[in-house]
Write a structure and sequence with these properties.
Elements lengths: L1 H4 L8 H16 L6 H15 L3 E2 L1 H17 L14 H25 L8 E2 L4 E3 L5 E8 L2 E8 L11 E3 L5
Parallel strand pairs: 1-2
Antiparallel strand pairs: 3-6, 4-5
Helix pairs in contact: 3-4, 3-5, 4-5
Length: about 170
C-alpha cells in the first residue's frame, strides 16, 4: 500500500541498469570460460580450508588472496544451457557472485577482529575482549573495495563486564 500511495518515483539511470544487465547476462553470452559448478567447488574449498570454524591469521590472509584471484576468474563463468527460463546452471553462476562476496566479508571481518566472539574463534586471539571489541563491524563498498569500520554496540539492558576472558568460559 505504501508503495502505491507514495508519490516519490526514483530516477533510474540507464547506464546503471545496462551495467547490471551485462553483469548478469554475461554467462549466457560467452562461448568459453569457467563452469559455475567448478567455481562453486573453489568457493567451498576456500571457505572450508581457510575460513572454517577455527580461524588463523595466516589462513585468513591466504583466503583473501585466493578470493581476490577467484573474483577475477569468475568474470569468465559460462553456462552451457543458454535459456533464461529454468536454467539452474545460470542461477548457480549468479549465486556464486553473492557467495564470493559473503565469503570475502566473512574473511575480512574475521581477520580484522582480534578476539574470539560468538561464532568466531581465532587461535591467535583466543580471548573475548570486551574492553576493546564490544563493537559491530560495518562494511561499505567504496569504489568496488570493501571498507571496514567499527561502531560501538548500543547496550540497552545488560552491560557486559569490561574484561578480557577466556573464550567460552563463564568467569
Amino acid at each position: 500500500m505504501f508503495a502505491q500511495d507514495n508519490k516519490y518515483t526514483p530516477k533510474i539511470l540507464n547506464r546503471g541498469v545496462e551495467k547490471l544487465i551485462k553483469k548478469y547476462l554475461y554467462p549466457l553470452e560467452k562461448k568459453e570460460g569457467l563452469n559455475p559448478i567448478e567455481v562453486r567447488k573453489k568457493i567451498r574449498k576456500i571457505a572450508g580450508d581457510k575460513v572454517g570454524i577455527v580461524r588463523k591469521k595466516k589462513l585468513l590472509r591466504e583466503a583473501i588472496e585466493e578470493i581476490d584471484s577467484l573474483k577475477k576468474e569468475m568474470q569468465n563463468q559460462i553456462v552451457s544451457f543458454k535459456a533464461r527460463n529454468y536454467n539452474k546452471e545460470w542461477i548457480e553462476s549468479l549465486q556464486n557472485l553473492n557467495l564470493i562476496q559473503v565469503l570475502e566479508m566473512t574473511t575480512r571481518t574475521s581477520l580484522w577482529r582480534t578476539e574470539s566472539r560468538g561464532a568466531l574463534y581465532r587461535t591467535d586471539f583466543p580471548k573475548t575482549n570486551n574492553k576493546e571489541w564490544l563493537k559491530n563491524i560495518l562494511i561499505k563498498n567504496i569504489k568496488n573495495k570493501m571498507s571496514l569500520n567499527t561502531k560501538d554496540v548500543i547496550i540497552t539492558t545488560l552491560t557486559p563486564p569490561k574484561i578480557i576472558r577466556e573464550y567460552g568460559r563463564k568467569r
